[in-house]
TrEMBL record:
SUPFAM superfamilies: Sigma2 domain of RNA polymerase sigma factors, Sigma3 and sigma4 domains of RNA polymerase sigma factors. It holds the Pfam family Sigma70_r4_2. Transmembrane segments: none annotated. This is RNA polymerase sigma-70 factor (ECF subfamily).
Length: 193
């Protein structure tokens, strides 16, 4: 199986087959990033296609100074930021739902995220976070990137990434606890009827 670097070298020499292999190898990673960030599979599909079009155009300028997957995620992160600034996103009146539901495990958010749970409650709670916190959490817990790698991808300092992760986890914990309390109250009201 050829490495990403070997495939890139072949692509630079004009191999379309190498591009197909490279896209197939990394498609799920990019799609998963967008889906987790947006919670909409059709939009994630569209943005993933746009990223690979950008990759095809930019690959002649790619240098092997960092892993291809890191370079690809950098393009995806920047493209998602462009989308959130776009008129199409600004005009969408509804916030797209995000992650799926958790049982009673809301106490240890990092542990839950490291299990890569996609429950409705987690999706919804993540959807309420500011974009920069959501992005940091998705890259850390769903793409297993280190703080240093996230800092490099987002052109931020490691301390900024740590802060975004801590604040995002704190907000997630509050959201999930609030939802647990709301569900408990609803269940108690049903029992009294």
């Amino acid at each position: 199986m050829p490495t990403d670097a070997e495939l890139v070298a072949e692509i630079k020499q004009g191999s379309k087959a190498a591009m197909d292999v490279l896209v197939k190898r990394h498609y799920h990673t990019v799609f998963a990033f967008f889906y987790r960030k947006l919670g909409n599979d059709q939009l994630a599909y569209d943005l993933t296609q746009e990223v690979f079009i950008k990759v095809i155009k930019a690959i002649p300028r790619y240098k092997n100074s960092k892993p291809f997957s890191h370079w690809l995620l950098t393009i995806a992160v920047n493209h998602s930021r462009d989308y959130f600034r776009s008129r199409a996103h600004q005009q969408s009146a509804t916030q797209l739902p995000l992650f799926e539901s958790l049982k009673d495990e809301s106490a240890d958010i990092p542990k839950l995220l490291s299990k890569k749970l996609d429950s409705e409650r987690v999706k919804e709670a993540l959807g309420l976070l500011p974009d920069h916190q959501r992005e940091a959490i998705i890259l850390k817990y769903y793409h297993d990137l280190s703080i240093k790698e996230i800092a490099s991808l987002s052109n931020k300092k490691e301390a900024t990434v740590k802060s975004r992760l801590q604040q995002g986890i704190h907000k997630l914990k509050k959201q999930l606890k609030r939802r647990d309390i709301d569900e408990e109250t609803t269940n108690q009201l049903r029992k009294t009827r």
